[in-house]
Each structure stands twice: as C-alpha cells, then as structure tokens.
Specification:
4 helices, mainly alpha, about 180 residues, about 70% helix, single chain, rod-shaped
C-alpha cells in the first residue's frame, strides 16, 4: 500500500502554478519589449541625412532668408511695374485731356460759328424770311435749304465767310424756281 503524501502533491502543484505565473510574466515582458522596440523603430524610421540639429536649423534659417529676399525682389518688381503703369496712365490722361480739350474747344467754336452765321443771315432782308440750315464742323460751314435768287445764294456764302473762325463754306443752297 502506497501512502501518498499531501505535501508531495501540493508542492508540485504550487511549482506548476508558479511556473505558469513566471511564464506569463516573461511572455508579458517580451510583448512589452517588442511593442517598445516597434515604437522606437517607428519613431526612428525617418532617414538620417547625417546632419546635426544645428546644421538642420542653419539650413532652415538660410532657406527662410532666401525666401524673404525672393519676396522682397518680387515686391520691388511689382512696385516698379505699378510705377511705370501709373506714369503711362498719367501721360495718357494728359494726352487724352489735351485732345478732349481741343475737341470740346472745337465743338464750342463750331457752335459759336453756327450761331454767328445764322444771326448774320437773319440780318439780310432776302435771306431772313427763308429757312437756311447752318451746320459747322471744324470751322467748315455747310449751308443747306432754299435761296430766293442766285445773288442771295452768293451773299449767304459771303456772309458765312466773313464770320470769325470759318475756314471754308460749302454752299448747297438751292435757288427757288430752278
């Protein structure tokens, strides 16, 4: 008859339990180490170009300075272009306003000439009762409408030519009855 000792059975069970606990602890440690190694490797996964932090900082400062110089040059070029465009616009405005002044002056002169020729024609006894159209462009007077006689027609040309500012007269008056 064999006698089993309770302590002999309990001790191996305790050793097995301790061994499992140690195995689990070692496995957990291995997992933690593996995860730590992966974390370190992923953080260090960037390629090293062999430069120190100071060299990288100097390079970044140099790049920033170059970008600032480029921006300054670009701004200066833009300002020069704007300045030239402004000068051109001022010159064009001066030319246009000068031309506009001449055109307006010529228009005012033409209106004054037309009014003066019409007033002078009304003073003539043969021409005052007849409707003669007087148009003026750049000092050239155009007379259109009826005239009572060839003499009245010629007198209308002479009256128009005598007005200050008239450069020439186109007499298209038609003698009545002709």
């Amino acid at each position: 008859m064999a006698i089993f000792s309770l302590s002999a059975v309990v001790l191996p069970l305790a050793s097995v339990s301790e061994a499992r606990t140690k195995t689990r602890a070692v496995t957990a440690m291995k997992l933690l180490l593996a995860m730590g190694a992966l974390t370190v490797l992923s953080a260090c996964g960037k390629t090293d170009d062999g430069r120190t932090v100071g060299q990288k900082l100097d390079s970044a400062v140099s790049s920033t300075e170059q970008a600032a110089k480029d921006a300054k040059n670009s701004a200066e070029n833009s300002l020069n272009k704007v300045g030239n465009a402004t000068k051109d616009a001022v010159q064009m405005t001066e030319v246009n306003s000068s031309n506009t002044g001449r055109v307006i002056g010529a228009s005012v002169d033409d209106v004054a000439i037309t009014a003066s020729v019409s007033a002078s024609l009304v003073k003539d006894a043969d021409l005052s009762a007849i409707k003669i159209d007087v148009d003026t462009k750049n000092g050239v007077v155009l007379l259109t409408g009826p005239a009572p006689s060839a003499a009245a027609r010629d007198r209308a040309s002479s009256i128009a030519k005598s007005v200050k500012g008239v450069t020439s007269v186109e007499n298209k008056l038609v003698v009545k009855g002709s």
